[in-house]
Design brief:
Blueprint: E1 15-19, H1 36-50, E2 54-60, E3 69-73, E4 76-81, H2 98-110, E5 119-123, H3 125-138, E6 142-145, H4 150-155, H5 166-178, E7 181-184, H6 187-197, E8 204-206, H7 221-227, E9 235-240, H8 249-262, E10 270-275, H9 288-296, E11 302-305, H10 310-319, E12 322-325, H11 334-341, E13 346-349, H12 354-357, E14 364-367, H13 372-384, H14 386-397, H15 402-427, H16 431-438
Parallel strand pairs: 1-2, 1-5, 2-4, 5-6, 6-7, 7-8, 9-10, 9-12, 10-11, 12-13, 13-14
Antiparallel strand pairs: 3-4
Helix pairs in contact: 1-15, 2-3, 3-5, 7-10, 8-9, 8-13, 11-14
Amino acid sequence: MSVHSIGAVRNPPRRVCLLTVHTSPLEQPGTGDAGGMNVYIEQTARRMAQRGVEVEIFTRATSSEQAPVAELTPGVLVRHVAAGPFEGLGKNDLPSQLCAFTAGVLRTEARHEPGYYDVVHSHYWLSGQVGWLARDRWGVPLVHSAHTLARVKNIALAEGDTPEPVVRVIGEDQVVAEADRLVANTDEEARQLVDLYGADPGRIATIPPGVDLERFTPGDRAASRCALELAPDAVVFAFVGRIQPLKAPDVLLRAAAEMLVRDPGLRSRLVVLVAGGPSGSGLAEPTALQELAGSLGISDVVRFLPPQGGQGLVDVYRAADVVAVPSHNESFGLVALEAQAVGTPVVAARVGGLPVAVADGRSGLLVPGHGAGVWADALRAALARRVELGRGAVTHARRFSWDRTADALLDTYAVAAGEFADRQAVDVPSPVAAGMIRG
């Protein structure tokens, strides 16, 4: 579907409200709470605007220097809502600020004529709590994307990681029950919503995320290595993302150490790139990964980079022989798609949505478990098949695009709006019936 094929979408909304309480699409992914969800919101909002839909994104203000309203791109506004202190609040502290945030959102809408927004789309459970109230106040449908689920994360908890709190589990139960439409990234996530949360399968739309196919393209690998000061003949494995137990960058380090035990001669060429910053429970021990590299005796082959954006991120993907995504759970895995789009094969854990993001044996390899030995085997196998898997990676990544995702979301909004209007018509008594009731 082309970028401007709005006619293909049934009764598209005029104006969409997106809620993302705990993280802003203006933040740099790879540190703090900014990650794939930020990319998802930014990319889909841009493409909705290209189709003539006005998008307003509400997020919590985290700095006194943030303007109340910022333009992400023409047609997309980001509204920073004051709710609690600007700094020092983590995700687990934010439930106490939901009333203040909701008041800010409702106050903004109240300045407009009734019916200003046609649909509310909440991202993550905190936003779903706000969206639920906004839906009832504004009389518009609520579409919700979980992005991650507490029960799923707790089942696949990394060693030493902290379980998701009960308040989140309860909050997710409420949002799943109230949302007019639930958006799942994959069929596996849809199954989890049904099995673990009792969701109605008829209210779930499975819409895979996309990848920016104009930005992430095959390119000059030698130039990218030069930009990162890597030797042309280096063996480069890369991890990109937030540094926390859930994302399991330690698995890559342990696998690299195992490879060096098996082949000491590899040390002169091996480079492990880790691009990202501490996040979540990783904030409690921000230098834990560096200390692990030291204890494994591989500090000389590991290079830590700050979170990368723009050309820097493209260079990391292009420079790598293999990108590792060893997460204990991923609702999808955008890093895997981005890496494959530039022609770099991916070795990923066989969890969550990664079997969709990675075509096992064609664009990369999926690994059962997180043991150092099996990961060392998989990395070595992918390295040996780098050229073949790289070609398959580009082909696989081209099956996904943010244009397709945005069109599917707009279609889902239209269906939700139609069904919501039908329910409202049924629920409102006719004037005659109302008179009889009063009589």
